[in-house]
Amino acid sequence: MNKKIKNVYLSIFILLVITSIVSINYGTKENNIFNQIIKETKSTPMESGITMYYEIKSDGRTECKDWLKSMNLYDNKIENKSLAASQYKISSMSVTAEDIKFYNLNNDKNVHNNITVNDNKVFCVQFEKGNIYGFIESKKATDNTQMSIFIRKISNTYDIENLYDKLEASINKDNVKQSCFKYIKLKSNEKEINTIQDNVTRTIKRQGAINIATVTTNNGFSSVALTNQFSPIKDGGENIDFNYAVLHETGNNYIILGTPLIDIAY
Q1: How much is the pLDDT for 213?
Q2: What is the mean pLDDT of residues 8-28?
Q3: Which residues, including other chains, have CB under 8 Å from residue 211's CB and lie 6 or more apart?
Q4: Interior/surface letters 43-69, b for 16+ CB within 10 angstroms, e for the rest
Q5: Is residue 243 part of a domain?
Q6: Fewer CB within 10 Å of terminal CB in the chain, N or C?
Q7: Structural domain boundaries enclosing 150
Q8: What residues have CB less than 8 Å from 141, skipping those under 6 apart?
């Protein structure tokens, strides 16, 4: 074979390989299971959130303040603030809003911090900036300091991966035993809750999900599955990495998607 022809074939082969790699990477990013469910159910994102747990050997108060600063969520006046009079419960902070009205969102772009717990063992700061809410908490243990972060973003666009990347880049790199829970909440225009449940289940099955188990709740369904797209955990003896809930509340139908579990009350 002529050398020039060989070079042409080689160039075409290399181009096809590069194109294939780019297509795979793009598909992985753009066609993940969250996006597929949004598309197939014709739903609108309402909010997304992440809970991160990790352990450090250093001082918890310093870690809280450094993290707030790195995320541009630090109120410079926090040092002069006393303990908030109305101490909130973390469990109530991580309850999803029932029906978010986007036109009522807090448009205040200033950062607001409230120190809600401050004693010898626990330091907790609640933060708020525009459509970002949450808290960071440190708990002193025997051999380390246990950190908890909950951050919620109210938005009608899919932005969970962006939020995760920022959070991952911001935490102490010397941490150990890190675990993370992510969720998004969608609003569906479908009137029949059973139809929504069937639609989500069909979508994840097409994505290769197995170990699907569903229970009924007071206001809908809650299901777990193994999609092999996320880090799995054990639940009832089975590996799972995905949790979805279909709910009817305040006259509307909603879908909450979480990995590996939905780590908020609903």
Answers
A1: 96
A2: 40
A3: 224, 225, 226, 238, 239, 240
A4: bebbbbbbbbbbbbeeebeebbbbbbe
A5: yes
A6: N
A7: 31-259
A8: 55
